[in-house]
Amino acid sequence: MMDKLIARYTEQLAEALKIGEGIKVKKPKKKINKIFVAGLGGSGIGADFVASIIRKECKVPYLVGKGYHIPAYVDENTLAIASSYSGNTEETLQAFKQMEKSGAKIVVVSSGGKLISAAKKKKYDFVEVPGNWPSPRACLGYSFVVQLALLTKLCLISEKSIKSVKKSIKLLDKEETNIKRQAKRIAKKLHNKMPVIYCEDRIEPVAVRLRQQINENAKALCWHHVIPEMNHNELVGWKDKDKSLVALYLRNDDDYKRNSVRMDINQKIIKKCTPNIINLYSKGTDQVQRMMYFVSLGDWISWYLSQLRDQDSIEVNAIDYLKGELAKL
């Protein structure tokens, strides 16, 4: 099932672009000088991608919250986005109620549930995405593309990123066979080992995405960090020999030169602890395309790894149990 969802990623991107074109949003009563997004899991990572993509263009801060509470700076000059695929995410619903009290310009992004019902009842702007996908983590395309479209509609960013998403669809369709072949090879190298994912700080969401997909699809632990920050702490932790660890670097041809050199030096140090070092390079002509390439590659890696580990990539019994226990309170 999950492999079929991953295979439909470009289809989802195209659909999300159409949804974005049809977004109608009321003009804010106050000038927007900051953006706050409440979202967790598959919905939260979409906001992370937006933050990374627009960082060089958007003139106002774009911040993501992944908990029950919103920060004190959310006020009438804030665009507050409540993002939950199901529309029933406990933490996001509570954050949404706080948004209402803040006087912020509220926009809901969801497939339904309590969030869409509240938006319709109280006449908040909302973007309703298709609800026929069985797994929220498979809906990244809807999550981040509609947010990019929303920011475009509000003149907070240009259409540059949207155009790049369109180019990404062509790139991924063209590279699909090669991506799956490479993913299968990498999954074999990760099997029965602990992946440690590294990348440049500006594309951290792709590392987070891969980590989360390995967690949920393959039912395995891993961790990630970014360059150059890990050079100031985690690098020192590479001290003991441990062949069960795999250092997986997500790299781009346009990585900042100093960061690229740092990665090369890091690997000289890490090689003393494990021989398992993998360098993966993206494809594409801009940051959006490169990030989308890594999303596709990473998703397929996680699925092939789930097959090697004989795991059901769809089930999330641990999360269901947690929600069930919380519901008793």
Task: Write a structural description.
Helix content is 49%, strand content 15%. Helix 2 (9-21) packs parallel to helix 6 (140-153), helix 3 packs antiparallel against helix 8 and helix 8 runs parallel beside helix 10. Strand 4, helix 5 and strand 5 (125-128) form a beta-alpha-beta unit. The protein has helices at 2-7, 9-21, 41-54, 90-102, 113-122, 140-153, 160-190, 204-217, 257-270, 287-308, 317-327; strands at 34-38, 62-65, 78-84, 105-110, 125-128, 194-200, 223-227, 245-251, 277-281. The protein is built from eleven helices and nine strands. The longest helix has 31 residues, at 160-190. It folds into two domains: 2-158, Glucose-6-phosphate isomerase like protein, domain 1 (Rossmann fold); 166-308, Glucose-6-phosphate isomerase like protein, domain 1 (Rossmann fold), CATH 3.40.50. The strands form two sheets. Strands 2-1-3-4-5 form a five-stranded parallel beta sheet, with helices on both faces. Strands 7-6-8-9 form a four-stranded parallel beta sheet. The model has no long low-confidence stretch (mean pLDDT 96). It has 329 residues and is of the alpha/beta class.
Key phrases:
about 325 residues; Rossmann fold; 2 domains; five-stranded parallel β-sheet; four-stranded parallel β-sheet; 9 strands
CATH architecture of the largest domain: 3-Layer(aba) Sandwich
Uncertain segments? none
Query: What is the CATH topology assignment of the largest domain?
Result: Rossmann fold
CATH superfamily of the largest domain: Glucose-6-phosphate isomerase like protein, domain 1
Residue share in helix: 40-55%
What proportion of the residues form beta strands (DSSP E)? 15-25%
Main beta sheet: strand number and arrangement? 5 strands, parallel
The count of DSSP E runs of length 2 or more, i.e. the number of strands, is: 9
Report the C-alpha radius of gyration, rounded: 20 Å
Q: Structural class of the secondary elements? A: alpha/beta
Can you identify the CATH class of the largest domain?
Alpha Beta
Query: Strands across the major sheet, in which order?
Result: 2-1-3-4-5
Helix and strand pattern:
HHEHEEHEHEHHEHEEHEHH
Shape: globular
